[in-house]
Amino acid sequence: MVKQGTPPFRIFNPPVVNPSLPPLPSSAVLTDQPGTIKQADLESPEALAALLKKEAAARNVKGMRLTDPMTPGQVSALGDEMAKFPGSFGLAVTVRLDTEGDGPVRAPSAQSGIKLVEWIHPKGRIASLAQVLKAFSKAGTWNHVGLSAERDRHLMEPFMRFAIANPNIVHSWAVVEPGHSSLVGPLSLIDSFFSTYSRYSPLPGRPFWQYVSDPFQLLQYLIEYGVKKVMRWRVPPGGHAVNTLGENLGCRFVKPQALLPKRLDEICQMVEYSGSVGTQWVRYNLERAFLIAYVTEMDVVVANSSLKNPRPEYIAALNDRAGMDLSSYLERGYTSVRPEYRGLGIGTRLLEELTSRAGDRKVFSLIGEDNIATQKIALRNRTRKVSTFFSRRTGKQMGIWIPETMLDAL
Fold this sequence. Notes:
By secondary structure, the protein is α/β, with parallel strands linked by helices. It has 14 helices and 17 strands.
């Protein structure tokens, strides 16, 4: 049980917020005294949840932070108990990111009140670590991952590439040098691992979390504004305001001849950087496309898609492998959404509006059989798979998808 004679929690008042940043309530945050919560408490989630609820009510606080490390299984069990007291307070926990233990890792429900997980000591394959982080992100938890510059050196490069390419999954991170602790990852590392999107056309400013060096303050922001909003905050140069990504989107549908060369370059780079298509014919196909759609914010292309006029040899190859004559069809594809803008429904909107602008032409799309996310978007967009074939270029099965309204023409 909790170590006798020592109060298990103490009040922590986060630093004063920069007045140019979003305001926060003046309420304090509770944090545990290191070492006062023992293994027996972690093994009894019912008792620990009851203790947390009692302490939060007695101190009239909205946030609590547990710094003694837990296992993924322990935090899942605690989350189940916390879900019985929805809305009581927001909780930050420290968890070992270990996927080599017994059994699968299960994320707590969104009703658990667990707003922030500070992951430490990553252990396992990158693919397995990514699955855990995805599950917690989907449950509405902010994932902060701490890496040790000494111990985790072998994970540094692959993890950083995953984190920068998936800011909706790894919300913040830090590389901790021996003897130091920081919530914010060094900006030099961010620059060196910047995604290919940002190398070509960077978004102005920096993610908001890089301006919050204190985990207590970050917890307060997550409680007050929610994970989905805070993750889209960006601080422009000068640090005197906060912009929310996705609030000022502009969507355009144009013929390729109407695009400025610089904009066409940017769209070609977006398609190539997505990594989902071969790059040999990208510019050729876009220059001859039936229609190009693109979305901008702050004068940066953040998403795009197109209706292509397929090359005759391409159509012949599809006919040979899938047994379908698509010579009268437009191909809907080259859809790419920057990582920072995923989850806003932009891709779905582009597909819907492109289809409605096809006129009297019919439309098809190619989707990899392993691309479950895009298949879900296609289904929501009332599109159905009508055939499959093996692609020698990709080395995998591909599906041919056609909008439901056009299926009677087959």
